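Fold this sequence, please.
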Amino acid sequence: MKLTWDEAKREQVLDTHNVDFLRICDVFDDPFGVYVEDHEHSTEDEVRFNVIGTTAAYGLIFAAFTYDTGIRLITARRAEHWMVNEYEENKKRL
């Protein structure tokens, strides 16, 4: 799976949220990851998605992404409390 991102956005996310796109690619390997379509930020030209999942580097994170020639990361941060609850509930269902 090809992962891409805008380098300036990666640096902004690293500065703002202390999360590096280079270290979260394994979020897509989490079998318990919670995926939802992001209707609020999607457009006719670009459908966006969110995932809450585990990474080796940061533990549980939230990431926004879209598909073009592969997966393009848009932003990421450590999971908030409600996201942790959502993730744990999803694990119980599976």
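The radius of gyration is 13 Å. The mean pLDDT is 95.
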